[in-house]
Design a protein that fits this description.
With 247 residues, this protein is an alpha+beta fold. The protein has two domains: 132 residues, Alpha-Beta Complex (Ribosomal Protein L22, Chain A), CATH 3.90.470.20; 88 residues, Alpha-Beta Complex (Ribosomal Protein L22, Chain A), CATH 3.90.470. A five-stranded mixed beta sheet has the order 1-12-2-6-5, covered by helices on one side. The chain has a three-stranded antiparallel beta sheet with strand order 7-11-10.
Length: 247
C-alpha cells in the first residue's frame, strides 16, 4: 500500500470547519519582527508567562509565533477574535477550546519541531506530531525502550540511509495516536505498533485496549521533516495548507 500524495497549498480565505473534513496547517516559527509583533498582540497572560520561561531568545520568539498562529488560525475558522479564545488542558496537557462556547465541538492539536509548527483541526478528536529528520546519538536506546520487537526488526532490516526517516516515521505516528486519545508518553508506547518503512502508507497495526477506530496519515510539511496525523475514519477528507497569515 502506497501513501497518498498531499499538496500543501496556501490556505485560502473563508475556510470553515465541516463534518468529515480535517484541515492541517503548516506554519513557520522564525518570523520577521513585524509579523511576530502582529501575532504577539493576541497572547493571554498565561501564555506570556510561559514565553518568559524560555532562556533562549530563539525559543522565546518561536513560542510566541506558535501560539499567536494557533489563535490566528482558530479565530479565522470560527469568525472569532483571536485574543478572545480561551483554552483548557487535559490530564496530559492536550489543549481544547474552553471559550467561546460555540466552539466546543471543534477539536485541534498542535505540534512543532525546530522552525515549523503543524496544526490539525476537525470536528472529532485527533492528534498530530512533527519532527525534523536528523541524526540522534540515542536512536538505538530510544528504539529499544519505545519500539515493539516487530518495529525494531523492521528498522534494522532497512538500508542505513533509510533508518533516520523510518525512526521518525515510527515516533511521530505513535505520538500522533497518543495525542489523539489524550494519553501520556509512557512505557505503554512499545505496545502501540505502526508501520514505519519510508515510502509506504502510515498504518496503525496494534493498540492496547482501544476499540475505537483510528486512521493514520503520513505528512511531509517541509523538506527534511516528517509528520503524522491520527484521526477518526469518519474524517475522510484531508486538506493540507500552508499558513501565510490572514488574507
Amino acid at each position: 500500500m502506497r501513501p497518498v500524495a498531499v499538496s500543501w497549498n496556501v490556505a485560502p480565505g473563508g475556510l470553515k470547519p465541516a463534518d468529515g473534513v480535517v484541515h492541517v496547517f503548516s506554519a513557520p516559527l522564525d518570523l520577521s519582527a513585524m509579523r511576530l509583533k502582529e501575532l504577539a498582540q493576541w497572547l493571554s497572560d498565561d501564555e506570556w508567562e510561559r514565553a518568559r520561561r524560555f532562556h533562549l531568545e530563539r525559543d522565546h520568539r518561536r513560542f510566541i509565533a506558535g501560539r499567536g498562529t494557533l489563535r490566528e488560525i482558530l479565530g479565522a475558522l470560527l469568525d472569532a477574535e483571536p485574543a478572545g479564545l480561551k483554552f483548557s488542558y487535559g490530564k496530559f496537557g492536550k489543549p481544547q477550546i474552553a471559550a467561546p462556547v460555540a466552539a466546543h465541538s471543534l477539536h485541534f492539536n498542535v505540534a512543532h519541531s525546530d522552525s515549523i509548527a503543524v496544526y490539525a483541526i476537525a470536528k472529532h478528536e485527533l492528534g498530530v506530531d512533527v519532527e525534523r529528520i536528523r541524526a540522534l546519538d540515542e536512536t538505538e536506546k530510544i528504539a529499544t525502550r519505545f519500539f515493539s520487537p516487530r518495529e525494531k526488526n523492521c528498522l534494522q532490516a532497512l538500508a542505513e540511509d533509510q533508518r533516520q526517516e523510518a525512526f521518525f516515521n515510527c515516533w511521530t505516528r505513535k505520538e500522533a495516536y497518543l495525542k489523539a486519545i489524550g494519553a501520556g508518553l509512557d512505557d505503554s508506547l512499545s505496545q502501540i505498533e505502526v508501520s514505519l518503512t519510508p515510502g509506504e502508507a502510515a498504518e496503525l497495526l496494534s493498540t492496547p485496549e482501544d476499540s475505537r477506530p483510528w486512521q493514520l496519515h503520513s505528512l511531509n510539511p517541509a523538506a527534511d521533516f516528517v509528520a503524522a496525523l491520527a484521526v477518526q475514519p469518519a474524517d475522510s477528507q484531508l486538506n493540507c495548507w500552508s499558513w501565510k497569515g490572514l488574507r
